[in-house]
Amino acid sequence: MAGNTSTPGSTVLSRGLALLFAFDDTHRRLTLSELARRAGLPLPTAHRLVGELVAGGALVRRPGGQYVIARRLWQVGLLAPAETGLRELAAPFMNDLHAATRATVHLAVREQSHVLYLERLSGRASVPVASAVGARLPLHATGVGKVLLAHAPDDVVTDTLGRLSRATAHTVTQPARIREQLERVRRDGYATTVEEMTLGACSVAVPITTGGRVVAALGMVVPSLERDRTRLVVALQVAAQGVRRSLDGLGPGP
């Protein structure tokens, strides 16, 4: 359940937010009953509020009766400072990476215990991936996620290792092995995965820093890392350094 706001004293706003927060990367289409259950609201209350959210342009009702987040709300979300600033600064470097490699290129940040994808560049020749702009995926099963987890606070690491899930047969779910991987990420400056999130897809990622702290991760997804690992790591590190210089030029961050 996404949250329970049916307790006495909860406001209309909090109930409306609970309905919006009922959506996530694994619940992109929800029926009215599912929305009510995940938001912890009585069905009549959910019906009334969902109708207002549809009328206000925050939700869209599909012909089959399911509800999805409206484009207008998605556009508002992209105005958040972290998303807007990083995406704009990283765009030219991501374009260069994609043009040189034709690989899927990711820009991501950590949102609590998940990876939040701010940008993705891909083409027809790219490897199929599970990510999408705005999607949230597990930290432990993705290249950008391993980078961000390696530099996350101890409580985030502990929480993540306490509920490891398996996306494919190759996903690493042993806490001790994950800790070893995170140590290598901090030592070597990059992370890799082999079919941990999607079969047939390998990833490599590096941190983006500013002011001495890791604020994002830049990664690529390719069919194999056997021959091009070093070349891809170097290309990513050069791009990440370019983004860092752009961020440093802005002065103190939020």
Automatic annotation (TrEMBL):
For this protein, the record's PANTHER family field holds: HELIX-TURN-HELIX TRANSCRIPTIONAL REGULATOR, ICLR FAMILY, HTH-TYPE TRANSCRIPTIONAL REPRESSOR ALLR
Using the record's annotation, list all stretches that form the IclR-ED domain.
Answer: 72-249
- Record's InterPro entries? GAF-like_dom_sf, HTH_MetabolicPath_Reg, Tscrpt_reg_IclR_C, Tscrpt_reg_IclR_N, WH-like_DNA-bd_sf, WH_DNA-bd_sf
Domain of life according to the entry: Bacteria
Q: What is this protein called?
A: IclR family transcriptional regulator
Question: Keyword Transcription regulation: yes or no?
Answer: yes
Enumerate the Pfam families for this protein.
HTH_IclR (PF09339), IclR_C (PF01614)
What PROSITE patterns does this protein map onto? HTH_ICLR, ICLR_ED
Q: Does the keyword DNA-binding apply?
A: yes
Look up and give the organism this protein is from. Answer: Streptomyces beihaiensis
Keyword line: DNA-binding, Transcription, Transcription regulation
Q: Where is the HTH iclR-type domain?
A: 10-71
